[in-house]
């Protein structure tokens, strides 16, 4: 293939990425991985089980087999691959992530030109309200969002490897469904935890923490991190909850943490995906743009986070790398 031919192919593959995403979303929406797992392996059986057109299923499966999502054919029957197995119903399933990305987030990205031209939220352009306001009033989307966050946070179990939580009082600010706090308390049996988030997150967090570490070791506190945070913690955490907010708001959160710290030995762990402007890989750059589409937010560089922490009276004393291109900044209060 000539260089020009390869360039054309590259353009086609990039511009049709949205079609591929919607094909995968449709398979998840129809529950095809679970239907195949249950033994319904032909187009006819899948159509009957899902109420979809048999011709539509046949054409969809032809593409998804070519993409490696499934394997097999109409004549031999379809089978799940490792990709579609990750979409089966279950605690670690990526199913809700695909539904969220294929519906609300796909709609937000449809306003990419406007969002990039104005540096404002594509989601707000599409839905007439901020993403977080939408989550506050739509319980189903909020639940899918939390499941998507949990499924994408495969590094949680390694956080206790970069910091010693033994005997500490740990406050997870914006702790969501409690998965990170449960991982930390599971690794440090003599630690205690406080999960702090908005009230609508409390039921899911309570259920998960009760089933994992027990409610005798945790306190659940509803509130707004931009107003204040629970006082007296030895360790404070923020995990991927700051990107949707502007610099002044983030400094406000850091100042609230600084005031709430028990003493000079307390620490703040900021866990996030950092961006770099030189030689960036695709995923961090893509997530940064996605933050603009969904929340009007942005990824931040190490230098920017350091500056914001400094403004709040906190100094970065250690930087630790985690899987999934995630970084932890460990900050100490300035005397």
Could you walk me through the main structural features you see in this protein, from its secondary elements to its overall organization?
- The protein has 18 helices and nine strands.
- With 335 residues, it is α/β, with parallel strands linked by helices.
- The chain has three domains: 3-85, Arc Repressor Mutant, subunit A (Orthogonal Bundle); 95-150, no CATH class; 153-333, Vaccinia Virus protein VP39 (Rossmann fold, 3-Layer(aba) Sandwich), CATH 3.40.50.
- The strands form two sheets. A seven-stranded mixed beta sheet has the order 5-4-3-6-7-9-8, sandwiched between helices. Strands 1-2 form a two-stranded antiparallel ribbon.
- Helix 15 (202-212) links the parallel strand 4 (192-197) and strand 5.
- Helix 2 (17-29) crosses helix 7 (95-102), helix 4 (43-50) packs across helix 5 (54-66) and helix 11 crosses helix 12 (139-152).
- It is globular.
- The termini are far apart.
Radius of gyration: 22 Å
* CATH homologous superfamily placement of the largest domain: Vaccinia Virus protein VP39
The CATH architecture of the largest domain can be named as: 3-Layer(aba) Sandwich
Report strand %. Answer: 15-25%
Domain unit count: 3
Class from helix and strand fractions? alpha/beta
Query: The CATH topology of the largest domain, please?
Result: Rossmann fold
The number of distinct β-strands equals 9
How would you write the strand order of the largest sheet? 5-4-3-6-7-9-8
Order of helices and strands: HHHHHEEHHHHHHHHEHEHEEHEHHEE
Outline the biggest β-sheet: 7 strands, mixed
CATH class of the largest domain: Alpha Beta
List low-confidence stretches. Answer: none
Distance between the termini: 64 Å
- Quickly count the helices: 18
User: Given the C-alpha coordinates, what overall shape results?
Assistant: globular
What is the residue-mean pLDDT, rounded to a whole number? 93
